[in-house]
Every structure is written in structure tokens, then in C-alpha cells.
Design a protein that fits this description.
This protein is α+β, with helices and mostly antiparallel strands. The protein is 40% helix and 17% strand. The strands form six sheets. Strands 15-16-17-19-18 form a five-stranded mixed β-sheet, sandwiched between helices. Strands 2-1-3 form a three-stranded mixed β-sheet. The N and C termini lie far apart (104 Å).
């Protein structure tokens, strides 16, 4: 028990302590309010913890190294709904940061991480609201099984989101499933009127052939009601996916694939709902949910069920092994052969050394056979179909993609179930070598040349059968926009036969047209 003579001293000390606590709490509150009210890029740089995003335009320009949280604030300014509540902005900030983390290095072979178009994410000058949301959520991302999740978002789902497996068949993203969104009941539908000739011209620009589009029919829809396939009477190919149809017409005009169609003679009226692919978060829906009182966490749980919000520092990054270019190959006619570098995920059924050996051998033999070479070639072996599709924008049934001086390969285990890793690598290597010379020809010339010369330089490969008399060379759309794996294989086989027929007449691959 405290003695009577010490009580005044105790009271004074207690009073000083209380005043100190009040002053300290007030200082902290003022500091927090001040920080939130005037967040700067310096604050965001500090919160980024040294993480940066190498940003560049798709058409070229300077590569800018942007602190991660500054990048999030800029993309928020470009992607968010104007005037959105704080909970919406914070939920979208986490989605943007997650997308950037999963896709970092998407354009790595071109010397940067992310582009500034809808191919990646669209940044704009950051504002006070976007900076505040970025700082409030700094360092937090969505994870699946302890790793950064592959996620998407779109402007408006129109009342029901789309599942990733319907939008991109064979994708394995169970948390991106179709869910109802009950905040769109009052949305006005969008409409678009086009003639059959308008549609034919749009499809011709992406490689469809045919003088007249006689009719168009919706053949299939996904579980969410979105159009997945349309029949095109009078064109070749005579079928197209809903997503490719939307992109061919114009994604701004045809806002989504959630549409119905009415025909009156030669004119068609499309009536639809939503804007974008509809997979993942609905930006407009998120705003409406926040306005009715839902929190950031509740919004994310609605659009990404099954994912966890975790600090970025606690999440392991993807690891890739890289080997330097191999030794120079003997000079080939048309120019010296260059080296090859490879990137292999960990773990992998094939080592980086073995992949480099196969790639270097293919490069050397094909350069000699073709009399041409290119700059150093980079071969990326992907750990999953999701990362392969993200890097190449190609469907699940494609095994390899060649662009510029880069070859992307589907996962080794998957290639083993298909034609094999080495055949896929050789086809892609041959396509890469002939691409520039044949860039002004129909696509079947380049695809056919790749398959033909890969076959010629690959030991124990079956001989190519004689071309049938009624052989029809595939259109660019049949090769680029195939609706299925079967259609893709048929188009590529015809491309090889067409090339073999033309090459037999000229014996000069450069002159095939």
C-alpha cells in the first residue's frame, strides 16, 4: 500500500503519464492522417522494399524502372472506376499487385517486365486516392497454396463472372470460377448493329477467307451464358471462338461475349451485358459492393474465393536457372551461327544443360540446312500451361511459340505426352529462322517451312506423305485462331504439305509463296 505522503507525487506522475499518452496518441493520429492525406511517390518507393517493375510500351521506347508500389498506384489510376470507395481501391490495389507479381518478367526476353497496354496492365499518372490505396495495402498479395496467384479482373461482369476454364480451356485455376454478382440488376444492356459485310471485312483483317459471309449462328455458350463458338457460313474457317470474334470486331464496340443476336436480312443487332472477359474481379461490381458496406476483404472473397491475402515478403518467388550462351557454332552459309541460352524451371524433368544441348544442336543443323542464322536465341521452358499461355497468348493445345529470337516451350511433362520436347523445339527453331524472310507470305508458308525442315533434320522421323490433289492450304485464321486442338493439327499438317509441294517445284524455300 502507498504511504500517505507519497500520494501527491504519484498523482503528478500519473497526470504527466496520461498527458504524455494523450499527446503521443494525438501525434500518432496526426502523423497517420498526414501520411494518408499526402502520400507521395517517395513514401511508395520506401514501402516497395526495393522491388521494382521494368515498364515499357509494346511499340518500344525507354524502359522505366518503377518501384512496385508506385506502379500499383499508377495502374490504379488507369484501371479503377473514378470516385470508387476506399474498400474498392484497396481490393483492386491488391489484385493489381498480385497480377504484377505473378507476371513479372512477362516481357523478360525483350528486356522489361510489363508493358503499358491491356496486354498487361494500363498505368496512368497516380493521384492522391490511388497513392493512398497503394500505401494502405503495400506489400500484400493474393496467394494460392502459398504462391502468388494467377488472377484477372475486368471492367464489368454484367451480373455473373466467367470461369477461367471456360474463357481459357484447360487452365487450372479453381478459384476463378463463375459466380453471380447481384449488384448489376439495373444495368442497361449495350447494343451494336453490324451488317454481314461489316463482319466479313473485320474477319478478313485477321485472316479469314471468303468473298461473302452468308450467315452467322451462335453454336455454343459457356456456363455463364457467354458465347464460346459461332458458325460462319461462307468463310474459311467456318467457325470462330466467341472471344476471337469479339476481338476481331473490336473489343470497344463488342464489349463482351455475353450477348444475344437478332438478324434482319443482311443486318444483325447484338445486345449484351458487361464489359471485358468477365474473369475474376468485376471493377464496377466491386465499387457497388463497397458502397453497400462490404470491406476490402469481403470484396476479394467474392471474386477470388479460396485465395489468401499474405505479405509479399512471406511468399517464395519463382526460381529459374539460366545458362550463358553456348560456344559459337561453325559458320553457316548466310551468316555465322550464334549461341543459345535456356531457362528451365525448378524442378524440371530435363536439366538446363540437356535443354541447351538440344537447342544448340537444332540451331546448328537448321542453320546449315537453311543457309541462314539469327542473333542469340533464348529458349524458355515453362513450368505450367498457365505461365506458357500468359507469356505467349497461345491456347493450351499449342506446344511451342517462336517470336523474334525467343522460343517458349510448354511444360516438359506435357510435351512428353504430345510429340516430344525435341520435335517441338525443332519446329519452333525452324520457324524462328525463316520468320523474317517469309514475313510477307501467307502464314502457312512459315508454319509449313518450320514443320518441313524440322522433319528433315530430325532422325527417325516418318516421311511426309504425298500431298493429295485437292489439298487446300490453310488460311491465316485457321492457323492463328483454331477453335480446337484437332483443328490446329489439321491446319498445321496441311501447311506442311502445301510447303512441301511448293518447295519440290522450286527447291528454294525463300521463293515459296
Amino acid at each position: 500500500m502507498t504511504s500517505q505522503r507519497h500520494r501527491p507525487v504519484v498523482r503528478v506522475l500519473l497526470l504527466v503519464s496520461v498527458i504524455g499518452l494523450i499527446v503521443e496518441a494525438g501525434f500518432r493520429q496526426d502523423t497517420a492522417v498526414s501520411a494518408q492525406a499526402g502520400v507521395t511517390d517517395v513514401d511508395l518507393d520506401r514501402a516497395s522494399g526495393g522491388r521494382t517493375v521494368a515498364l515499357r510500351g509494346l511499340t518500344g521506347g525507354r524502359v522505366e524502372s518503377v518501384p512496385l508500389e508506385v506502379y500499383v498506384a499508377r495502374v490504379l489510376a488507369g484501371e479503377a472506376e473514378p470516385g470508387a470507395p476506399d474498400a474498392t481501391m484497396e481490393a483492386l490495389a491488391i489484385a493489381i499487385r498480385t497480377y504484377a507479381t505473378f507476371n513479372i518478367g512477362r516481357h523478360g526476353t525483350d528486356g522489361f517486365d510489363m508493358c503499358d497496354t491491356t496486354h498487361c496492365q494500363v498505368p496512368r499518372p497516380a493521384n492522391a486516392t490511388s497513392r493512398r490505396a497503394a500505401l494502405a495495402t503495400a506489400g500484400r498479395i493474393l496467394t494460392y497454396r502459398g504462391r502468388p496467384a494467377e488472377i484477372f479482373y475486368s471492367a464489368s461482369c454484367g451480373g455473373r463472372s466467367e470461369s477461367a476454364s471456360d474463357a481459357w480451356p484447360r487452365s487450372n485455376l479453381p478459384y476463378l470460377r463463375s459466380v453471380p454478382d447481384d449488384v448489376h440488376d439495373d444495368d442497361e444492356p449495350w447494343t451494336l448493329e453490324l451488317s454481314l459485310e461489316d463482319i466479313r471485312r473485320a474477319l478478313a483483317r485477321v485472316g479469314f477467307e471468303g468473298d461473302r459471309l452468308r450467315d452467322i449462328e451462335i453454336e455454343a455458350r459457356s456456363g455463364s451464358g457467354r458465347v464460346t463458338r459461332l458458325a460462319l457460313e461462307g468463310l474459311r474457317p467456318d467457325v470462330i471462338s466467341g472471344d476471337q470474334f469479339r476481338l476481331a470486331i473490336s473489343a470497344r464496340q463488342m464489349r463482351s461475349t455475353a450477348f444475344s443476336m437478332q438478324k434482319r436480312g443482311e443486318r444483325l443487332t447484338f445486345t449484351g451485358r458487361g464489359y471485358g472477359h468477365g474473369v475474376g474481379m468485376c471493377v464496377i461490381g466491386a465499387g457497388r459492393r463497397a458502397r453497400r458496406g462490404e470491406s476490402m476483404a469481403q470484396i476479394l472473397a467474392q471474386y477470388y474465393p479460396g485465395l489468401t491475402i499474405e505479405p509479399l515478403a512471406d511468399v517464395p518467388a519463382a526460381t529459374l536457372t539460366a545458362l550463358p550462351p553456348g560456344p559459337s557454332a561453325p559458320a553457316a552459309p548466310g551468316g555465322p551461327a550464334k549461341g543459345v541460352s535456356v531457362r528451365v524451371p525448378r524442378p524440371s524433368s530435363i536439366s538446363a544443360v540437356e535443354l541447351e544441348r538440344l537447342a544448340f544442336g537444332a540451331h546448328t543443323q537448321l542453320s546449315k540446312a537453311l543457309g541462314i542464322s539469327v542473333a542469340p536465341v533464348t529458349v524458355n521452358l515453362h513450368e505450367s500451361l498457365e505461365t506458357f499461355r500468359s507469356a505467349t497468348d497461345r491456347p493450351w493445345w499449342v506446344s511451342a511459340s517462336a517470336a523474334g529470337t525467343t522460343i517458349d516451350l510448354a511444360p516438359a511433362a506435357l510435351l512428353a505426352q504430345r510429340e516430344g520436347l525435341e520435335p517441338a523445339l525443332r519446329v519452333a527453331m525452324a520457324e524462328l529462322l525463316v520468320a523474317e524472310t517469309l514475313s510477307d507470305r501467307p502464314l502457312w508458308v512459315r508454319v509449313g517451312a518450320g514443320r518441313y525442315f524440322a522433319r528433315q533434320t530430325m532422325p527417325n522421323t516418318p516421311r511426309l506423305p504425298a500431298p493429295p490433289r485437292n489439298l487446300q492450304c490453310p488460311s491465316d485464321a485457321e492457323l492463328r485462331l483454331a477453335i480446337s486442338a484437332t483443328a490446329q493439327r489439321d491446319a498445321e499438317s496441311r501447311a506442311e504439305l502445301c510447303f512441301a509441294r511448293a518447295f519440290a517445284q522450286t527447291r528454294n524455300w525463300r521463293s515459296v509463296k
